[in-house]
Amino acid sequence: MNIAIAGSGALGCGFGYMLQKNGQNVTLLDYWEDHIEAIRNNGLTVSVNGVKGTLPMTIARPEEVSGEKDVIFVFTKAMGLEKMMTQINHLIGTKTKIVCLLNGLGHLETLEAFVDRRNIIMGTTVWTAGIIAPGETQLNGNGPVELQNSHPEEEEAARVIVNILKDSGLFGEYSKNVKYTTWRKACINGTMNALCALLDASIEQLFASPSIDSLLGGIIDEFAAVAKVQDDIEIDRDEMIHYLKEVASRLGSHYPSMHQDLFNRRPTEIDFLNGAVVEAAEKYGIEAPHCRRMTDLIHAKEAVLGIE
Ligand code: NAD
C-alpha cells in the first residue's frame, strides 16, 4: 500500500519505520529541515523497545510529493492538524483513508472539513515515542493501536488497516467504541499529564500525593459530564481513578509527554484536552472550573517559559 505519514516526528517515525519494515511503501512528510536532511543522508534510525535499526526511507515536505495515497496517518500535534490537512489536500483521493491517532478531542470535526466521514478512521494508541536527534527516534511499548471507522459502512476498510498494523508489529485492534477510548485517553492526558506538567513531577511523585484522588476526581467529573452530553459516553469517576492508578503503577518514574513539551519549550496540547472540555461545557451549560483552572495554569506556565 502507498502510505504517507503526515507529521514524521516521534510517533510518526516509529509507525513509518515499522510499516516500511513490513513491506509497505511509506513516504514520510515533515517540514523539519535537519530531520529531512539526516534521513535523506543516513536513513531513519529507530530504537524499538531498545532494539536499534536503520532503514532508507523517503522523506519530503508535503508540497514536494504528488500522487494520491491509499492511507495517510496524520501525526502532527493537535494544534498542527488543520494546517497539515491543507498541505496534503493534493495527496487525498476519493478512496484515501485518513487515520488519526492524535491525543485530544475534536479531531473528527477538524478532519471532516477536508475529508468525507467515510474516509476517516479514528483511533488511539498507547505506544510511546520520542525524538533522540534529527533522523533518530525511539518507540516503546506493545500497543495496542485501537481503530474504528467513523462511518458505519466502512468497517471492512478499518479492519484492513488494523491487519496492516498487526502484521507490522504495531498491535492493531478493531475497536467497537473508539469514542470511549478517545475520552479515556483524553482523561489520562487531562489529569495525569497535565498535573505532572504543572507540578514538575514524575508520575510516581504525583500519585504519592495525599490529595491525589481529589485532584483527579474533580477533573474527571467534568470530562465525564461533557462526554455524556456530547457523545453519550459513560465515564465512571471511581473506575477511572482506579484505571489511572493502574496505568501509573506501570509507568513509575516516567515524565509524561506534556511535561516533556514544557521541558523542551514546546506548546502543549492542553486546548484539545481540558481546554476542549471547558469549551464544550460552556456550550452545554455545564460548570467546568477544574478544567478551566488547569488550562489557565498550563498556559501561564507556557508564558513563564517563553513558549509561544
Ligand atoms: P512530534 O512533535 O514529535 O511530531 C510532529 C511532527 O509533525 C513534527 O516533526 C513536525 O515537524 C511535524 N509537522 C507538524 N506540522 C507540520 C506541517 N504542517 N507540515 C509538515 N510537518 C509538520 O509529535 P508526536 O510526539 O509524534 O505526537 C503526535 C501526536 O501523537 C500528538 O497528538 C501526541 O499527543 C500523540 N501521541 C504521542 C505519543 C508519544 O509518545 N509521542 C503517544 C501517543 C499519542
Question: How would you describe this protein?
Answer:
With 308 residues, the chain is of the alpha/beta class. The chain is 47% helix and 18% strand. It has helices spanning 10-21, 33-42, 81-87, 107-112, 155-167, 178-199, 203-207, 212-231, 237-251, 257-263, 274-284, 289-304; strands at 2-6, 25-29, 44-48, 51-55, 58-60, 71-74, 97-100, 120-125, 128-133, 136-140, 145-149, 172-174. Strands 5-2-1-6-7-8-11-12 form an 8-stranded mixed sheet. A 4-stranded mixed sheet has the order 4-3-10-9. Helix 6 runs antiparallel to helix 8, helix 6 crosses helix 10 and helix 11 runs antiparallel to helix 12. The chain is globular.
Tertiary shape = globular
Q: How much helicity do the residues have?
A: 40-55%
Count of helices?
Answer: 12
Q: Detail the poorly predicted runs.
A: none
What hetero molecules are bound to the protein chains? nicotinamide-adenine-dinucleotide
Report the average pLDDT across residues. Answer: 97
What fraction strand?
15-25%
Rg over C-alpha atoms, rounded to the nearest angstrom = 19 Å
Instruction: Tell me the series of helices and strands, N- to C-terminal.
Output: EHEHEEEEHEHEEEEHEHHHHHHH
Alpha-carbon distance between the termini? 38 Å
User: Would you tell me the structural class of the helices and strands?
Assistant: alpha/beta
Q: How are the strands of the biggest sheet laid out side by side? A: 5-2-1-6-7-8-11-12
Main beta sheet strand tally, sense and closure: 8 strands, mixed
The tally of beta strands, per DSSP, is: 12
